[in-house]
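User: My instructor asked us to take a sequence, write out its structure as tokens, and then describe one feature of it. I'm not sure where to start. Here is the sequence I was given:
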Amino acid sequence: MMMPLVVHSDPLPPWWALVLIALLLLIQSTWMFIDARKRGRRAWLWGLWGVLNCPSSLIVYLLVVVWADYRKKRE
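Assistant: Let's start with the prediction itself. The structure tokens for your sequence are:
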């Protein structure tokens, strides 16, 4: 006797949570793009990467770009 295949899927989060996540990613990537352009640091790369995830791309950006520029100014 074959058992029927049952697929369970989790329900989607509420619409306002999806809008909030999309807004957060858009704001983060826009800020990273503008700041990278001011610093002359591959703005398109950082802007696109900022859209993909949050907050790890922001943390990496702050360490690689902002902190490196801060250290150069201090020396």
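For the description part of your assignment, you could build on this observation: The two ends are 75 Å apart (CA to CA). Try explaining in your own words what that tells you about the chain.
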